[in-house]
Amino acid sequence: MVQSTNKLWVNLLSDKYKTGKNFIHATFNSSSSPSWSSIIKAKDTFCSGYRWRAGSGSSSFWFHSWSTLGFIGSLVPVIDIHDIHLSVKDVFTFNGQHTQALYTNIPQIIADSINNTHMNFTEMMEDAFIWSHNKNGVYTTKSGYSWLLQNSDSPSNTTPTLSWSWIWKLKVLEKFKLLVWLACHNVVPTLSLFHHRHIAPSAAYSRCGEQEETILHCLRDCRFSSSIWFNLGSTDQTFFSDSVVHNWIKYNASGNHPSTFLAGLWWTWRHGI
Amino acid sequence: MLQGHSKRSDFNFIIEKLQTRMSSWKNRLLSRTGRLTLATSVLSSIPTYYMQINWFPQNICDSIDQTTQNFIWKGTNNKGIHLVNWKKVTKPKHLGGLGVCTARDANTCLLGKLV
Fold first, then answer.
1. Are A141 and B83 an interchain contact pair (Cβ–Cβ within 8 Å)?
2. Does the pLDDT of residue A272 top 70, yes or no?
3. What is the ipTM of this complex?
4. Which of A37, A74, A128, A232 is deepest in the core (most CB within 10 A)?
């Protein structure tokens, strides 16, 4: 509705609910149709993702929400009669301090933020709201979804502590990748995990009966597993020394024979059950 | 066509659709990887059409998520445990998730096309 204002359904809805050009501030009530209330709910979510793009600058200075402040008209007590027809462009083409040329009294904080704004007007385009998270300013479902994800995560979650994309770039069977993914989350269903979740009575590995069945023990350190790795040609000590699962798998999967390593991992795992 | 408030009973048919689709896969022996692929490609796209015009009630979104989750971890015979929590699963792949969409977010961003 923001971006294609000449479509029939847009005209129909905006006339029915009398939004005019101020769709961005529209609301719904209990007598609105389900579609309208759906659109408004989505609008409230995406509102902050849109921004105003200056075109010809012919929008009203007072009655368009062209700035992040909302309507300027609603922020001042009274608008002087001389100023009422001013457009955004008129105000911003005044020399010097933009707000000084106005007859209306504008509170100092708002005046400062207006004076610090810079606008580039182009005669060719209309003033419009554009979606600020896509290159051409048009909303797409994909960009909307990634924007939603970014917003819902706390900032610490958006910068990953570990890198994950390498798993999905491996050229091996999908089931190997899923095992690697589980292993990196430390949730491969071993007895140690079951014990931790109070499902299994003991965490000892049933094949050798000696140690706790952690992922690394089951996949690498147990004597059954390590004999498999010896036969696959991984004989040096560094192979058995890394104690962090993520690092160990990543290092070996980016080595010379990733498919051998991952197939070895998968079959050791299948064999261990 | 809906009248008045959108209620849970208006959208129950979507859950039923998901369940019939899942029961048609019952006889195949699917691995977890296969189920994951089916969940992301087929299950999550079943409600897409209705999501484009209606804001789903929260409990419908929750049950769609619940159904998808159970299908990924347990399959159709209801055995198995949820190994990774749903929040992590729904992250994009490069952030350590499996790239599964939550119903709420999918609904919101599809409606965003009308904004």
1. no
2. no
3. 0.81
4. A37
